[in-house]
Q: What sequence folds into this?
């Protein structure tokens, strides 16, 4: 970038004015825009302050600058990130870093050093600095470093807020304030008062039964029973007896008559989990029961009426099963009057942290200890993990972390190995800095892995699409992965 762009910088209209600063007077920051994150620049050389301030302002950031480190310490109340020079006469950048962190641990500090030695970088990190940049500072690197520091500050603040509100934002235990979950909560509130059948769709572990319970709890049937059955967990030969009941002596172990779940749920709600696993023969009997609102117990001659709202759930694509003849179309329309789609956990953003805090508290209470805090390093790892097991996997992870935690703060080592070693699937092609660059062999290998996954493991098809023979594809997949943290952007 040419120096001409910075030859005559204009002063920031919000530049701070203080008694000890040698900065030219500007307007005092009497009305910073609310909700904006402020970067505080500290450098005893005025031209460097103006240079970096202009760079960051062009990137859309709000910036305050001062040439006095002591004055900077009085301006931390509304600051999100501090960027300081290392060598200053009034106070060194390392000492300023230590004092900033002593006053506000959640403010990341970036140190700019012109010394060009490893020792200065190590000293900066030991002082608690979030990052350091070598002078002369590349404007692009400054913008990237500032953006990352702002994200770290926001993450720390969000963790603190979530920790204090983890018990508040819930619907019958269904935590979540992300846009996808807000839609789920709104839909629950709209359909709960009705008598319509509901089909809840979502991956395993996303909380489908919690949605069913929320619908029941907000419905006029809330005082009645909530009866649930997992259709995949009951052998097909026993499913009819479980649902419809049986008469005494109807089969070998039927020593007495038993009401089925349909009748037990009268006045309340019957939840049929994993309805897509139900055999076709049983689907026909279920359809008749839903149409007639009566059931016939196994071995009985008379019908018994019931009055229960039917909620169903599945992790499968029932419409595809209908097309394949695996699920009855008429039954599909009967149970799918209203559909609710639950998002997978990795699409729920900071709901992950909200849930993690709730699970930390619950697990800590069961273990008779105070819940450990969650540092931003752990929070980042949780946010960027894929969570194939969804909420259920997150709960298991937090229970494990509470059991293994050796201090009052979690560490990466307290997480399961799959999280410690996890690397995000995405990789940076248009890298803006050396740490984001992947070797060509590693880039190729990870891309081939991604293609194979998309094709459900069909390596022959993957080789065909990639223009490779199968032997070449296997050989490239067998290459040892690069594990250097500087070459893999895993947000550790």
A:
């Amino acid at each position: 970038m040419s120096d001409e762009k910075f030859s005559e910088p204009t002063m920031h209209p919000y530049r701070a004015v203080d008694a000890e600063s040698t900065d030219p007077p500007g307007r005092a920051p009497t009305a910073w825009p609310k909700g904006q994150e402020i970067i505080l620049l500290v450098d005893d050389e005025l031209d460097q302050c103006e240079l970096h301030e202009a760079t960051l302002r062009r990137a859309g950031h709000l910036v305050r600058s001062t040439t006095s480190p002591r004055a900077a310490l009085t301006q931390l109340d509304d600051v999100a990130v501090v960027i300081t020079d290392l060598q200053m006469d009034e106070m060194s950048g390392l000492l300023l870093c230590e004092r900033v962190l002593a006053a506000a641990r959640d403010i990341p500090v970036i140190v700019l050093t012109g010394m060009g030695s490893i020792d200065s970088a190590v000293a900066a990190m030991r002082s608690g600095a979030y990052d350091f940049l070598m002078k002369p500072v590349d404007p692009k690197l400054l913008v990237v470093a500032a953006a990352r520091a702002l994200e770290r500050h926001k993450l720390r603040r969000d963790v603190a807020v979530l920790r204090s509100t983890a018990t508040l934002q819930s619907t019958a235990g269904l935590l979540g304030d992300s846009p996808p979950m807000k839609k789920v909560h709104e839909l629950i509130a709209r359909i709960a008062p009705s008598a319509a059948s509901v089909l809840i769709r979502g991956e395993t572990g996303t909380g489908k039964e919690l949605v069913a319970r929320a619908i029941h709890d907000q419905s006029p049937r809330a005082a009645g029973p909530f009866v649930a059955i997992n259709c995949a967990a009951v052998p097909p030969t026993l499913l009819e007896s479980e649902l419809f009941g049986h008469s005494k002596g109807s089969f070998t172990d039927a020593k007495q008559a038993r009401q089925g779940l349909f009748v037990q749920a009268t006045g309340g709600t019957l939840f049929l989990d994993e309805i897509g696993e139900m055999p076709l023969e049983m689907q026909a009997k279920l359809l008749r029961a839903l149409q007639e609102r009566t059931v016939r117990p196994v071995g009985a001659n008379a019908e018994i009426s019931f009055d229960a709202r039917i909620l169903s759930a599945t992790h499968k694509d029932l419409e595809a099963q209908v097309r394949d003849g695996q699920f009855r179309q008429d039954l599909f329309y009967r149970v799918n009057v209203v559909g609710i789609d639950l998002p997978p956990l990795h699409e729920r953003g900071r709901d992950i942290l909200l849930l993690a805090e709730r699970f930390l508290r619950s697990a800590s209470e069961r273990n008779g200890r105070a819940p450990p805090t969650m540092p931003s390093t752990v929070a980042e790892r949780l946010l960027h993990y894929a969570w194939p097991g969804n909420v259920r996997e997150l709960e298991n992870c937090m229970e494990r972390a509470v059991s293994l935690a050796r201090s009052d703060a979690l560490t990466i080592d307290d997480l399961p190995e799959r999280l410690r070693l996890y690397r995000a699937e995405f990789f940076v092609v248009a890298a803006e800095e050396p740490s984001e660059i992947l070797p060509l062999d590693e880039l190729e290998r990870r891309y081939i892995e991604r293609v194979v996954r998309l094709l459900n493991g069909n390596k022959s098809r993957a080789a065909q699409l990639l223009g490779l023979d199968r032997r070449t594809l296997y050989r490239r997949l067998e290459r040892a992965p690069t594990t250097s943290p500087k070459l893999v952007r895993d947000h550790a």
Summary: Confidence is low (pLDDT under 50) at residues 1-35, 165-172, 426-436, 482-492.
